[in-house]
Amino acid sequence: MTANVLSIAGSDPSGGAGIQADLKTFAALGTYGMAAITALTAQNTRGVSGVHAVPPAFVAEQVDMLFADIRVDAVKVGMLGGAAVVAAVADRLRRHRPESVVVDPVMVAKSGDRLLDEAAVETLRGQLLPLATIVTPNLPEAGVLLDRAAPADPEAMRRAAIDLHAIGPRYVLLKGGHLAGICSDDLLFDGSAFLDLPARRVSTKNTHGTGCTLSAALAALLPQSPDVPQAARAAKSYITAAIAASDRLTVGQGYGPIHHFHAVWHGGARL
Ligand SMILES: Nc1ncnc2c1ncn2[C@@H]1O[C@H](COP(=O)(O)OP(=O)(O)OP(=O)(O)O)[C@@H](O)[C@H]1O
Ligand SMILES: [Mg+2]
Questions:
Q1: Tens-digit pLDDT profile for residues 67-103
Q2: Which residue's CA is the nearest one to ligand 1's atom 21?
Q3: Ligand 1 and 243: CB distance under 6 A
Q4: Could you list the active site residues?
């Protein structure tokens, strides 16, 4: 049976991140994709010029309409905006209880700017993370969630994963995309064992939407995998290959998108 996967996240009209990246990832990984939009953004590969938030009650209404009709096998939660949207989404997940919930705690932009205020971070910690099958912070986000300096080496990443797990998610996948050096290793922790997810850093400017894509890949792969570690390994292979193939696309003059369909496209469309 084909899995039905829902993204609750913001829109990126340039197609590299947000729900557009999520839907491409869901399709590339053999699932049926759906998207409830939390915010419109105006952006391209060079930056974001504006954000237009969806009212929390309307985010909840989109989610309710889907669950009223469709079997949802996994949910990915991305950019949410303020505390009220975080609370509304947590409330809906408690009510509808999907089997797998991936929470990407989007809160620090590539530029380093904070995207979530302190009240929203508190609601994320208190209400949303305890509902997560897996949470996928990058290193600065781990720092904000734990209220300390961002981890910057493997030892600090292990300590952070332990403390993030104590907040309540079943698994923590701490992403190493912001590490210095030739590796981009991620770390998975289930409360007792660590699993390293190693990768060599790809030398490219095309890293727009890497975080969105990894969390979407997890949501697509969890219903198709025997366990979470297996899904995490497969998601890591997918993102690494998508970054490595990004130079097959020519999109924009800034931080370009990664190639979601690297394993599917062989030249043009076959009609
Ligand atoms: N240059 C790179 N080469 C290989 N893997 C990378 C590279 N950059 C990021 N990754 C991987 O991509 C995934 C996303 O990690 P990253 O830390 O970039 O997330 P993020 O900061 O949340 O991204 P975004 O800014 O899109 O939200 C991780 O698996 C990370 O290891
Ligand atoms: Mg991110």
A1: 999 999 999 999 998 999 999 999 999 999 999 999 9
A2: 138
A3: yes
A4: 175, 207, 209-212
Burial of 200 (0-12, 13-18, 19+ CB in 10 A): exposed
Going from the Cα of 193 to the center of ligand 1, the distance in angstroms, rounded, reads 23
Other beta carbons less than 10 A from residue 108's beta carbon: 21
CATH class of the domain comprising 4-248: alpha beta
Phi, psi of 108 (to 5 degrees): -130, 120
Please give the distance, rounded to the nearest whole angstrom, from the Cα atom of residue 21 to the centre of ligand 1. 14
pLDDT digits (tens, 9 = 90+) for 42-57: 999 999 999 999 999 9
Spatial CA neighbour of 104 closest among 147, 80, 135:
135
Do strands 134-135 and 194-197 pair parallel, antiparallel, or not at all (unpaired)? unpaired
Residue to probe by mutation, ligand 1, list 184, 206, 255, most atoms within 8 Å of CB: 184
